[in-house]
Amino acid sequence: xxxxxxxxxxDLLRIKAVFLRPAEPFTWASGIKSPIYCDNRLTLSxxxxxxxxxxxxxxxxxxxxxxxxxxxGTSTAGIAHAAITATKLNLPMGYVRSxxxxxxxxxxxxxxxIPGQKVVVVEDLISTAGSCLEVVEVLREAGAEVLGIVSxxxxxxxxxxxxxxxxxxxxxxxxxxxxLAEVAEKEGYISDKEKHExxxxxxxx
Length: 205
What we know:
Elements: H1 2-14, E1 18-20, E2 26-27, E3 33-34, E4 36-38, H2 47-64, E5 70-74, H3 77-89, E6 93-96, E7 109-110, E8 118-126, H4 130-141, E9 145-154, H5 158-166, E10 171-176, H6 177-186, H7 192-204
Parallel strand pairs: 5-6, 5-8, 8-9, 9-10
Antiparallel strand pairs: 1-4, 2-3, 6-7
Helix pairs in contact: 1-2, 1-6, 2-3, 6-7
């Protein structure tokens, strides 16, 4: 899978879904000053990258979750990826809202989920893993058997790794910060010094 991980990393850099600014950090919603910002929604707008991503997610599910019966996307970024990947795998899909609707049936889960169904969650990005684990909790409360998560990219933050382990949830990502930093340095997006600063930032969180 390393070849695929490097290809996805190169794709993300090429379409500027990942921005690297070690000298001028971004401010995340959490207030963290970060030298990296990732917007995987842009993968949907590039046909070739979208194909790489969806084929990759499908391959992760075939490899690690062959018993999957339904895919559930995270709201909102994971919905489109879940739908396209489910089509490739000929599986049903749905998604989990960030909050219950305030009208109608007040659903949190959209789509038909049968208690006991084996579910794979589709996420675009994992940092501290809080949002995807909230989705897992909602699905478990509804009676689903959550096999695990597939995602496009993970920062590999210790907090996220620990949270996933505590919740007994497995995640498999198409690419990660270590590989992206390696590809970015090799292709001239950042210097070797900046690559080490990027990794150090992640390790310090």
